[in-house]
Each structure stands twice: as structure tokens, then as C-alpha cells.
What we know:
With 116 residues, this protein is an all-beta fold. It contains no helices and eleven strands.
Amino acid sequence: QVQLVESGGGLVQTGGSLRLSCADPGRTFSGYQRNWYRQAPGKECEFVVSINWDGSYTYLSDSVKGRFTVSRDITKNAVYLQMNSQKPEDAAIYYCNVKLERESYWGQGTQVTVSS
């Protein structure tokens, strides 16, 4: 079962918090870096964060640095995106992603709406 499954999206007020999850039920990607991207209506897909296979290294885009954190639970094979101090510009569909040498895998996405 080659699948990435996002969850945790929803409606949050400006300044609020949400935690997104990315599950890998088939444990296909347990040894790989995992990324989060987002896409707002009418905008290009934007890189948000990445985390390496064991969670020891993370990289965050400037737009979310200081507000978002990413973590990984190896035992659950899940990656979490903690989003704090949310802004209206954070509203988007958030996608979990794994890039292999020849293929890129995406989840179905989870919607985040930020009310002002």
C-alpha cells in the first residue's frame, strides 16, 4: 500500500494553532525525508518544511520559520506539522510529499482555512 495520508486540517482563527499529520500506512517511506507543501487558490505550490528520515534534521521555509515546527514519530511512521500563530496567508491545501530518485509521491491533501 503505497500511500501518504494527511489529516488534521480545518478552520482556525488568525493566531491560532493546528497540527497536521502525515501517515504512511504501508510503511513504504519510513527511511525517507518527508516534505510538506501547500497550495493556495490561484497560487503555485509552495514548499513549507522538510524532515529527514529520523527527525534529526528539519528545514523550514522563511515564511513559516518561527511559527511552524515539524516532527517525526518513527514508531508510528508519522510526520507532524505543528502550525502556530497562523496567518491568513497560511490558508491552503497542505500536502505531504516524498521524493524518491525517480518518483514523487503525494497525499490527497488537507485543507487549512484561516479566518481573520
